[in-house]
Amino acid sequence: MSGLSGKLKADIKQLRGKDRKPLPVLFLTKKNYRIVILYRILNHFHKSTLASLLLLPLSLYYRLMTNRYCVDLPVDTPIGEGLRLNHCYCVVVNRKAIIGNNVYIGHSVTIGSNGDRYPVIGNNVLIAPGCLIIGDVKIGDNVIIGAGSLVVKDVEANSIIGGHPSKFLRVKE
Q1: What stretches of 46-77 show up as alpha helix (H) in DSSP?
Q2: Which of 3, 24, 105, 123 is deepest in the core (most CB within 10 A)?
Q3: Where are the domains of the chain?
Q4: Pfam families, from UniProt (predicted)?
Q5: How far is it, in rounded angstroms, from Cα 69 to Cα 89?
Q6: CA–CA distance, 100 with 80 (Å, rounded to integer)
Q7: pLDDT category, 49, cuts 50, 70, 90?
């Protein structure tokens, strides 16, 4: 899927899980829906000056939402479809980090830089609460990063890692 509608559908599918309430109800009652949907819309139009002006009220609302919940998710950060933020508290993502498809980001997660070095996160990655991913780190596809992990080295695909600093625990089955 590509384009705004495809990415929004993938994001909503990932966020929704087994919850079958109507989307407007979920948008109004769940902050993670609001932040992800607003991010996706603003991300799609952030390079267009005219669209940015037309979406200024939406941008201001996004800014208010992200400030209120301490979420630093710049709209120019490249994130693949199927983004899922859970709880939306204290999430920091560097604008130059690259994040793949179907990525779950728990609360209190930092995906940051070390000088001019930025993380690259693959597809189908689960980043549990409290993780720090710092610097020139490449995380492969289908990886689970345990809660409270400090990731400063590359992670192979299909792995489960954890600890502070992170260590390989086992191959994901």
Answers
A1: 49-54, 56-68
A2: 105
A3: 3-171
A4: Hexapep
A5: 5
A6: 5
A7: confident
Question: Which residues fall within 8 angstroms of residue 25, CB to CB, at 6 or more apart?
Answer: none
- The answer as to CATH 3.30.420.140 being correct for domain 3-171 is no
Distance CA 98, CA 165 (A): 22
Tokens 């954890």 belong to 162
Rounded-to-integer distance, Cα 123 and Cα 138, Å? 11
Query: What is d(CA 21, CA 41) in angstroms, rounded to the nearest whole number?
Result: 22
> Strand order in 138-139's β-sheet?
98-99, 120-121, 138-139
Question: Within a 13 Å sphere around the CA of 132, how many CA atoms are in the beta-carbon half?
Answer: 10
How far is residue 2 from each of residues 9, 39, 62, 118, 161, measured CA to CA in Å?
Answer: 10, 16, 23, 25, 31
pTM of the entire predicted model: 0.91
Confidence bin at 87 (pLDDT 50/70/90): confident
Q: How far apart are CA 94 and CA 113, in angstroms?
A: 7
User: Amino acid letter at 57?
Assistant: P
Q: What angle do CA 120, 122, 123 make, to 5 degrees?
A: 150
- Please state whether beta strands 104-105 and 84-85 pair in parallel, antiparallel, or not at all (unpaired): parallel
